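Internal tracking record. Fields below are filled automatically when a chain is submitted to the structure queue. Please do not edit lines marked as system-generated. If the sequence contains nonstandard residues, flag them in the REMARKS field before resubmitting.
Queue: standard
Priority: normal
Entity type: single polypeptide chain
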Amino acid sequence: MKKIFLGINVSHGASASLMIDGEIILAFQEERFNNIKNFIGYPKKSIENCIKYVEDKKLKIDEAAFST
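SYSTEM-GENERATED OUTPUT FOLLOWS
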């Protein structure tokens, strides 16, 4: 069974990433979606894109962690 981890950074350079079995599969920086350079805050669109990938592949996130 695959181990799926969602990492969320709610600080300078807000972002989200998805790791499957120790390999980073996706990484998004929120500034790419909202056009605010070095965005600080909740990376809503980045998280949504990671979750969409998991749902499309019919997978389940095992763990999630925040850094601030």
